[in-house]
Design brief:
Two copies of one chain form a homodimer.
Chain A: E1 4-10, E2 14-21, E3 26-33, H1 40-54, E4 60-67, E5 71-72, E6 75-76, E7 87-88, H2 89-97, E8 103-107, H3 108-119, E9 127-132, E10 136-142, E11 145-146, H4 175-178, H5 180-192, H6 206-214, H7 218-242, E12 246-250, H8 258-271, E13 280-283, H9 290-305
Parallel strand pairs in A: 1-4, 4-8, 9-12, 12-13
Antiparallel strand pairs in A: 1-2, 2-3, 5-6, 6-7, 9-10, 10-11
Chain lengths: ~300, ~300
């Protein structure tokens, strides 16, 4: 009975599951809709039950879990996008899953960063990873170690004093300009103000905004350029602090790739300290597997330390 | 003939020299006015000559040099506050000093950070060090390693889009609000606008501004609170990225200590991400010796690696 590692990536829309060998090979993967209607405890019960249908807990040497919130010592507070109150994720999962294996819990974007760092194409350090989705997350690896806890939260660095309201409660965060929720809201505001745009007759989502911007639509361009400007400022601030040679972008919006990178690049000079080299913006490699891969590698990493 | 390590800290006003034992004990220190009228090569000639008067180059196992500019592989570009053009500091110093010892060159604030990290009272990691002087510098230590090159430059993170002009060439840097040069300029602007203040009859410098603010002078308070607000934003941004448990403040203005820290603390809540613990603001320990101590420790560190 060969031992396995289980990686679980709990997102706002989907929970992704991966069963890996101890050497890190992905043996089996699955994804289920996130049980958004449930509270944290019941959600983890459902997630543990599904995980048990994939792999026998007695075969599992360790579990890594990514959650869409800052994590401190396996605990999360209230999660805005889910009906979760403060919870010990590690203990709660273990109670439902059974077994006595170590359970490592970390922020989803930080685990995705660690997955991309360990299995992606780029290995430069300091390794700076930014996810562009509904929100803006991130993770940082230095000296082979993921900065754990509430670190790498580039989406919640302030780019505008007294700026737009962010979902986290404070104002002017990068996420309030460059997250897809913020981009959609800004597009709607511009449309409500009566500006002419092809978006008027379309579903307002990130893909349509980016496609319209590429085609030269003035409203869509305004939205993308405001996001790119905030991203340029935040990336330049990370450069001043850490001086990375590149920044790796994951998440749905990063799929827009070159077009978005060009827009950020155009604005980087305005914010970059003269001592820094312009970081090269690169698209991540692992797509939806980044989170489960990072969860698995964090289990291996923690086990090799102990 | 016991071997020594020479630490040199080249500042805008003074060059500080320390002769240390190989174990890191300070045996001799000195300070001379920075030869501001000279170009980089001639200045290093003068500095090397003074160093030779303190210690015989044949006794020196290694030299560490801090310069007030970002450093890449021993090289600096133009230094705004000095008449230095692009220069290989390591090779140029060695040519004048003689001998065949390793010469390590690094940014002055980064070396001060490393000095405080290795010899100061606080050892938490990530170690975040901020110097408050004419400019605002900094240094970061993670995993026992100083982030080298143009890193730790918290003074040149952008806090205000299209904000005040900074000496570095870009706009809205922390330094353009919290450096003493910026604070003095802002105080003068307020006086020129006719605001009533006790500063009108005093020399406008950082100490007088801070003293007047403590005594409740409205203009001085405006200056200090603008600086504290920018510092709070920048510290919160560092927290979101690195999640340090504390930030260590060095440099002349940090001597104002508690009063300034209280002002920053009052504003931190506005900018801090809810996942982060409020970092504790602490005053550094080594004062003027931080730079030479860090220069010496960097020599020891580089030698132990090779």
């Amino acid at each position: 009975m060969e031992q396995k590692i289980l990686g679980i990536d709990i997102g706002g829309s989907y929970v992704k599951y991966g069963v890996f060998s101890l050497e890190g090979t992905l043996l089996k993967r699955s994804a289920e809709r996130t049980p958004r209607e449930l509270n944290g405890e019941d959600a983890l019960k459902t997630i543990a039950a599904f995980a048990k249908s994939m792999v026998d807990p007695s075969e599992v040497a360790g579990v890594g879990i990514g959650v869409p919130a800052p994590v401190t010592d396996g605990k999360v507070g209230k999660i805005a996008n889910l009906r979760w109150e403060a919870l010990n994720v590690d203990e709660t999962f273990k109670r439902f899953f059974g077994g006595n294996m170590p359970v490592v819990v970390e922020n989803d974007a930080s685990l995705a960063a660690f997955g991309e760092y360990t299995h992606g194409a780029f290995k430069e350090e300091p390794y700076v990873f930014i996810t562009l989705g509904t929100g803006v997350g991130g993770g940082i690896v230095i000296g082979g170690e993921l900065l754990r806890g509430a670190a790498g939260e580039i989406g919640h660095t302030t780019v505008v004093q007294e700026g737009e309201q962010c979902g986290c409660g404070k104002r002017g965060c990068l996420e309030a300009y460059a997250g897809t929720a913020a981009m959609k809201a800004f597009a709607k505001t511009l449309i409500d103000e009566g500006e002419t745009t092809v978006l008027k007759d379309k579903r307002i989502n990130a893909r349509n905004i980016l496609d319209a911007a590429k085609a030269g639509d003035a409203v869509a361009l305004k939205v993308v350029e405001r996001a790119a400007d905030a991203l340029a400022q935040a990336v330049a601030n990370v450069s001043a602090l850490l001086n990375p040679s590149s920044c790796i972008f994951g998440g749905g919006v990063a799929e827009a790739g070159e077009f978005l990178f060009e827009k950020i690049n155009e604005r980087l000079d305005r914010y970059l300290f003269f001592g820094n080299k312009k970081p090269i913006l690169k698209k991540a490699c692992l797509g939806n597997d980044a989170g489960i891969t990072g969860a698995m590698e964090m289990v291996r990493h923690v086990q090799s330390d102990s």
